[in-house]
Specification:
Layout (H helix, E strand, L loop, with lengths): L5 H4 L12 H13 L1 E3 L4 H9 L1 H8 L4 E6 L4 E6 L1 H4 L16 E6 H20 L7 E3 H12 L5 H16 L11 E3 L4 H4 L2 H20 L29 E8 L1
Antiparallel strand pairs: 1-3, 2-3, 4-7, 5-6
Helix pairs in contact: 2-3, 2-4, 6-7, 6-8, 6-10
């Protein structure tokens, strides 16, 4: 990209042209950089968007971008314009593309963990009046995820697998670092994961695991699971990657 020095080419009329307020510039740039503004970590920038929402929307519109303001959770989330993501006769809602946006698809094992985390978040919002982010014990996540991904025969391997998955979701802004074996679930998860769809996903994989366990052997007994007969999402490649699925995060 070639950047031209505006000062070298500015004319006399440019001095009279109205400028965007500094607070609006800073908030919009932060939103474009990270894809989200959280009132708990960037209160001034978040407040600037709320105070100048029309101006920010006007800046985003020529870029085919939009924003969603979540007053309940104190978030402003960057979105691709509905004009691009609405299904038409020529394309489905999932076939959009944008020159300024990178699409991130979650692997199957990441999606399973996301579904479990989303359930914890839903339960917290349903039962607690506390506005702080919910937390979940690392060992609890380990026990909830194991039935789907299988037993590797080593507690250390299973722990490392979960830590790798959490690190991947942390990059999407969904969880915090693991601190004292506790994970904090970030409110952004509400905008990346639909709870109904994820419950369907979990139910589907429960059925697959049950069918696998109950599938009879040739002698009529239940089939034992060989070491290389991995359940869905039981990634065992050198880099720990499993298959892709359609759950994803959009960041510029």
């Amino acid at each position: 990209m070639t950047i031209i020095d505006a000062g070298a080419t500015a004319g006399p009329d440019d001095e009279d042209r109205p400028t965007t307020p500094t607070a609006v510039k800073a908030a919009t740039q932060e939103l474009l950089k990270y894809g989200v503004l959280d009132a708990s970590t960037k209160p001034k920038l978040h407040a600037a968007v709320l105070a100048h929402r029309n101006e920010v929307a006007t800046i985003l519109e020529p870029l085919d971008l939009a924003m969603r303001i979540d007053d309940v959770r104190g978030l402003v989330v960057l979105l691709v314009s509905p004009r691009l993501t609405t299904a038409t006769d020529d394309r489905s809602a999932d076939e959009w593309n944008h020159p300024l946006v990178r699409r991130h698809r979650l692997r199957m094992d990441q999606s399973l963990l996301l579904a479990i985390l989303r359930r914890h978040h839903v339960e917290h919002e349903r039962t607690s009046s506390d506005t702080s982010s919910p937390t979940v014990a690392f060992d609890d996540l380990l026990s909830e995820l194991q039935p789907f991904l299988g037993d590797r025969g080593s507690e250390l391997e299973e722990s490392n697998r979960l830590r790798r998955l959490l690190d991947g979701l942390k990059d999407h802004g969904v969880v915090s670092e693991v601190v004292d074996d506790v994970v904090t679930i970030r409110p952004l998860i509400c905008h990346l994961a639909d709870p109904e769809s994820l419950e369907v996903l979990l139910a589907h994989y429960r059925r697959l695991v049950t069918d696998l366990r109950e599938e009879p052997r040739g002698d009529g007994g239940p089939r034992s699971r060989p070491a290389d007969d991995r359940r869905p999402g039981d990634a065992h490649t050198a880099d720990g990657d499993g298959g892709n699925n359609d759950a994803g995060d959009v960041r510029p």
